[in-house]
Amino acid sequence: MVIFVHTGTKNGTAYVVVVDARKLDYHPTLEAEHASIVLLTEAEIGLSEALAGQRISSTNLASALAG
User: Fold this and answer.
1) Which is nearest to 37 in space by CA: 13, 1, 2, 62?
2) Across-strand partners of 3?
């Protein structure tokens, strides 16, 4: 089971929300935040790979994106 945890405040009161990640469809705000975290993680991985010299040619990139 994958758990997604969100903390914050509402009307000055602290709260923690723990949701099974498979149920994020029912929580649009948490789903959007989860998507942001996933995108940032992927961007970090891509940047690390680029800095390590792991690159592909523009031809290979175009081919991979085409299908």
Assistant:
1) 2
2) 20
- 3 and 18 in contact (C-beta within 8 Å)? yes
Tell me how far CA of residue 34 lies from CA of 5, 51, 64, in angstroms: 10, 26, 26
Range 32-50 average pLDDT: 88
User: What residue ranges do the domains of the chain occupy?
Assistant: 3-54
What's the burial of 31, exposed, middle or buried (CB within 10 Å: 0-12/13-18/19+)?
A: middle
Q: Which residue carries 């991979």 as its tokens? A: 64
For the entire predicted model, the pTM comes to: 0.46
* Residue 52: exposure state from Cβ atoms within 10 A (0-12, 13-18, ≥19): exposed
Angle CA(19)–CA(22)–CA(27) in degrees, nearest 5? 55
